[in-house]
Write a structure and sequence with these properties.
There is one protein chain. This protein is of the alpha+beta class and 536 residues long. It has one domain. Helices cover 35% and strands 18% of the residues. The strands form five sheets. It has a seven-stranded antiparallel beta sheet. β10 and β11 form a beta hairpin. It is globular and about 60 Å long. It starts with 17 loop residues before the first strand and ends with a strand. The relative contact order is 0.20.
Length: 536
């Protein structure tokens, strides 16, 4: 995919594709993108820029992520692709038995029960240690500045902040939630668009992380504050859980789709779902995006999701491997289930054997696909007092069914929704891509990849195209800009088509492609967010 590929926009767009020769940062908030660009101009590489952008996003887009987030990354560095899994595990003292004795049939969304060990600070420190060109103190400086001095809240962030405030005001009644309201609603409400917001606690915590290369968060002063808060409100997370955390370097997994290798992080992430769907779809040909193409995409995704929701969990606990689920024979078996009518998805039997996303690229050829999230916006509703650390609620995805692959267990990592993507061709990097948004993410990956490869759309056009989202059974949600004629034809095939009132649940993505012959970078950022492609 060259930057000069199709400039045709099939649907109205308010943005144009961005081009650059030296470096590029694409993410969902302009100040964060500019922070990453600032680091590139000061001598940092794509990894430094990714860390700076990620840390800044915890400040300028706290509605989607925070210091208490998990993170994943795909890093193209000096000619090789590396994967990082920085998702934390469940506390060692928690178990399904304990929760059932306490009267729970499922893990709640809020409070300490769904809190798992945060991985994002460890991801920043580890990426900086292994591949960074600048000290972490310099890389985190822009985020610290915005936390201390403040910044004007952008429109979509303000909208999501207000939604979260309304939900939390209704659902978070305990004393343990007081710090969230003090931190994120200091005036008794969510900040308005254009209004300044700052957090000195956030700034001091980022300074502590930078000064200690993340150690304070896991074995120092910050870890002590997290444990003290947890003990105070009968939480399960302890200092030993934090001290035992290590980001894990992993081998990325891939499928070859029409000559391009599409890469994802292996389980416990759900990137495997996108790859399974692409593996099924490569047996079909698509000349243009018609009703049959949409039908086959939806059916392939449903089959892949059925398998993903059954089998994906911590890789050490899976009864089947990613390789088995991605085998050619199994893809053919699943492909043969797709006919002309919408079907109810069921998991097969393979042969035995609220998120923020960012993409960066530098002039040396390095590129990063990075994602981090608290889950469901602000996460658990808990903020460690005096720190600005909003704790995630990833444990909500665990099952309490002892027969389920993703059953809760001490020290186990849950099925994870956040996934970075990367494309190569013949061993050379095309670039990073990603789409945020819970269980929409593999669906967004599938649609962005096909828009780029099958339909030759440039990065911005690939992101602008109206999206569909499978919800359950035969129900498919489509954006209001989705072609009505195609929606009607899909209905005739048995799909239960619902038109969304807004674009809030369809994800927000970014893409950077590099032209191999010229080195020119082409980037796009999703109009469903406040984002920007910052470049030079």
């Amino acid at each position: 995919m060259k930057p000069s590929d199709s400039t045709h926009y099939p649907y109205p767009s308010q943005r144009t594709v961005a081009y650059a020769g030296q470096g590029m940062v694409a993410t969902s908030q302009p100040l964060a993108a500019q922070a990453g660009l600032e680091i590139l101009k000061e001598g940092g590489n794509a990894v430094d820029a990714a860390i700076a952008t990620a840390a800044c996003l915890t400040v300028v887009e706290p509605t989607s992520n925070g210091i208490g987030s998990d993170a994943f990354a795909l890093i193209w560095y000096q000619g090789e692709l590396h994967g990082l899994n920085a998702s934390g595990s469940a506390p060692k003292s928690i178990s399904p038995t304990a929760l059932k004795k306490a009267g729970y049939d499922a893990i709640p969304k809020y409070g300490f029960l769904p809190v798992t060990v945060p991985g994002a600070p460890g991801a920043w420190a580890e990426c900086n240690r292994k591949y960074g060109a600048l000290p972490l103190t310099k890389v985190l400086a822009p985020a610290i500045k915005y936390a201390r001095k403040g910044y004007p809240v952008t429109p979509i962030v303000a909208l999501n902040w207000q939604r979260a405030f309304n939900i939390y005001s209704q659902n978070l009644q305990g004393e343990e939630y007081k710090s969230w309201f003090e931190t994120f609603a200091p005036q008794g409400r969510a900040p308005y668009a254009g209004e300044m917001w700052r957090s000195e606690d956030h700034a001091e915590t980022l300074e502590e992380i930078a000064a200690t290369a993340g150690q304070s968060f896991y074995q120092g002063k910050l870890a002590e504050k997290i444990e003290r808060f947890s003990r105070q409100y009968q939480g399960y997370i302890r200092g030993e859980d934090l001290a035992d955390f290590r980001p894990e370097w992993v081998d990325p997994i891939n499928v070859n789709y029409r000559g391009y290798d599409v890469w994802e992080i292996p389980p416990n992430g759900q990137g495997l779902v996108a790859l399974m769907a692409l593996n099924i779809l490569r047996g079909f040909s698509f000349d243009y995006q018609d009703e049959l193409a949409y039908h086959r995409q939806i059916e392939a995704l449903k089959l892949a999701f059925a398998d993903g929701l059954k089998y994906i969990t911590d890789s050490q606990s899976m009864s089947t491997t990613a390789g088995q689920l991605l085998s050619a024979d199994y893809a053919a078996q699943r492909r043969n289930l797709i006919n002309d009518e919408a079907a109810l998805p069921e998991a097969g039997t393979p042969p035995k054997g609220g998120t923020v996303y960012l993409a960066t690229a530098d002039s040396q050829g390095n590129m990063v696909s990075y994602i981090q999230s608290n889950y469901m916006g602000f996460g658990s509703g808990l903020v460690v007092p005096g720190t600005g650390i909003a704790l995630q609620n990833r444990g909500h995805n665990f099952s309490l069914d002892p027969n389920h692959e993703n059953v809760l267990a001490p020290g186990k990592r849950t099925y994870h929704t956040i996934i970075p993507g990367f494309i190569t061709r013949e061993g050379r990097p095309v670039g990073p891509f990603g789409v945020m948004g819970g269980f929409m993410q593999p669906q967004g990956h599938l649609q962005v990849v096909m828009n780029s490869i099958d339909f030759s759309l440039n990065p911005q056009a690939a992101l602008d195209s109206p999206r569909w989202q499978w919800l359950q059974d035969k129900t498919v949600l489509v954006e209001h800009s989705f072609p009505k004629s195609i929606a009607q034809q899909l209905s005739l095939r048995g799909h239960d088509i619902k038109v969304a009132l807004d674009n809030g649940s369809f994800g927000r993505g970014q893409i950077i492609w590099r032209d191999q012959s010229t080195g020119v970078l082409a980037g796009g950022t999703d109009g469903r967010a406040d984002g920007q492609v910052a470049c030079w």
